[in-house]
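no rush on this but wanted to send it before i forget. theres a chain ive been looking at and ive put its sequence and its fold in token form underneath. i want to understand how the tokens follow from the sequence so walk me through it. thanks a lot i owe you, the record is right below:
>
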Amino acid sequence: MKKSRKKTRGGGILISIVIPTYNRANILPVAIESVINQTQDNWELLVIDDGSTDNSREVVEPYLKNKKLTYYFQDNKGVSAARNKGIQMAIGEFIIFLDSDDYFDKEVLKNVNQALSNKPDLVCWEVTRFIEGRKKIQKPKELSGIYNHITAIFLAGSICYRRSLFNEVGRYDTALNFGENYELGQRISAKKDLKITIINKPLLYYVLNISTRKSNSIENRLSSYIYLYKKHRTEYDKNPKDSAEMNYLLGFVLEKTKRKKAAIERFKKSWFDNPRNPKPLLKILYLKFLS
């Protein structure tokens, strides 16, 4: 049943927050509570369960007493499909995606509400990253030519989208479960007169344990890189430095999977596209003579 559109308590523009999840019952409450405990209440929360086989449903059940929270279960289709379902169900004018192993600062919505006075298409903010326990602050930065050199950060939980953008550029590409946020970002960055507001505060806590995140597997990264390169080949051809970077990444993952000959070919393409960068040449020499 479709919800009726209305402002939440305290007024303000309604912001839909979408949490896709799969078998993360043990950590999902942290993400949910980081939304419920916001200092501003102009939000709705959509938890999209992408076919969990653990007790995620039971974990979410107590939170459903809050009428601002909706739980939806679907067959396992991947994170991109789960986010797309959230877009379909959302009634807010703006949407934020939050991964179920990350969590918000309690004042993210307060800061976003202030930023929305500029009538932006996107609002981006800084991220406190914990990668294998190591802490680092990641800030929105000027991106490369394939993103039209916009200043942004396309990481789930660090960006608020005007919902109408998805009508213009399309939703998440369901062929991807790695790099899908930045692929969406490539399409968004092509929009003329894109208006972006930056919040210079770390408002997302991003937690990454590489060994346990399936999307970071070498084979998944390889197939995603190949798909991205083919899909956006025209744009890569127009931006040699981006092409060089993508071919280097392809060479790197091919090397990791012991595909030496294919890796050398990708490193050659990388060096050809950007001969001022010595890294691919060093890789070629290493693979040919030292490995």
Notes: The chain has a mean pLDDT of 93.
